[in-house]
């Protein structure tokens, strides 16, 4: 396993609770849309065993041509040791990244794509949308639906409807409206549904999609392959 040490080159305050940390790109570090990485703070590997409290699994919210590795995360007033340290980091501080992989690249199968996310989960989808804007080949259209009860919606410069590019974006701030929209979107029995958020959020979305006749193979999750059966294999009659 190769560990890449790199530096923070910019910190963007997206909202009062959400920051994007832009990291320098190491020479041979590559990734694709929908990638996640292990993001570690200094000292994580100082002992005999890695200090897991200083490591987090994070989505990369940028594409390689943007020349920075973007990590977007919510940091609340009351937060973990990891987030407390992260909140106090400055431009120039060192960060480690390793084990980078994409579970949710943009599928180009001549179908409609639906991006369903909660809060900062939208960061996972930002690169997919940018990739689609650059090359729309074999994607009929994309519809993004995000729920954020804070009403501090993210990336509104990118997540805005662009009819010419066959891209629509919706933000809602409550669960009732969100799930009504999901039910309507699931009327497309041939669509591809990407879901990003907490495990509870994933399960609720999967249950609704399955009840509407969407098959497990049409549902894309930001999970390793060995984790998928836990979410996608359940008996709807229970």
Largest sheet: 6 strands, antiparallel
CATH topology of the largest domain: Rossmann fold
What strand line-up does the widest sheet have?
A: 4-3-6-1-2-5
CATH class of the largest domain: Alpha Beta
Overall number of domains: 2
What proportion of the residues form beta strands (DSSP E)? Answer: 25-35%
Number of helices: 5
> What string, H for helix and E for strand, traces the elements in order?
EEEEEHEEHEEHEHEH
Work out the radius of gyration.
Answer: 18 Å
Helix share bin: 10-25%
Rounded mean pLDDT score: 94
The gross shape turns out to be: globular
CATH architecture of the largest domain: 3-Layer(aba) Sandwich
Unreliable residue stretches:
none
Structural class given helices, strands, pairing? Answer: alpha/beta
Oligomer: single chain
The CATH superfamily of the largest domain is known as Nucleotide-binding domain of ferredoxin-NADP reductase (FNR) module
| Total E-strand runs | 11
Q: Give the N-to-C terminal Cα separation.
A: 42 Å
Give structural attributes.
21% helix; Elongation Factor Tu (Ef-tu), domain 3; Rossmann fold; alpha/beta; 11 strands; globular; five-stranded parallel sheet; 238 residues; six-stranded antiparallel sheet; 5 helices
In brief:
Residues 1-107 form the FAD-binding FR-type domain. It comes from Virgibacillus salarius. The protein is an alpha/beta fold and 238 residues long.
């Amino acid at each position: 396993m190769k560990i890449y040490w790199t530096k923070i080159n910019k910190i963007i305050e997206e909202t009062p609770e959400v920051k994007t940390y832009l990291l320098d790109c190491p020479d041979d570090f590559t990734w694709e849309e929908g990638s996640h990485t292990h993001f570690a703070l200094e000292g994580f590997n100082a002992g005999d065993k890695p200090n897991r409290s200083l490591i987090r699994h994070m989505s990369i919210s940028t594409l390689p041509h943007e020349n920075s590795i973007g990590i977007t995360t919510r940091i609340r007033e009351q937060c973990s040791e990891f987030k407390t340290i992260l909140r106090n980091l400055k431009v120039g501080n060192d960060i480690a990244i390793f084990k980078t992989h994409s579970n949710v690249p943009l599928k180009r199968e001549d179908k409609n794509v639906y991006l369903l996310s909660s809060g900062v989960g939208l960061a996972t989808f930002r690169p997919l949308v940018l990739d689609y804007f650059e090359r729309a080949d074999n994607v009929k259209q994309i519809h993004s639906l995000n729920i954020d009860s804070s009403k501090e919606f993210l990336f509104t410069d990118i997540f805005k409807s662009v009819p010419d590019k066959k891209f629509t974006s919706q933000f809602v701030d409550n669960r009732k409206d969100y799930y009504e929209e999901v039910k309507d979107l699931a009327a497309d029995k041939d669509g591809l549904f990407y879901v990003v958020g907490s495990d509870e959020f994933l399960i609720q979305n999967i249950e609704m999609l399955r009840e509407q006749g969407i098959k497990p193979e049409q549902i894309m999750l930001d999970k390793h392959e060995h984790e998928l059966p836990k979410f996608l294999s359940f008996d709807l009659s229970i």
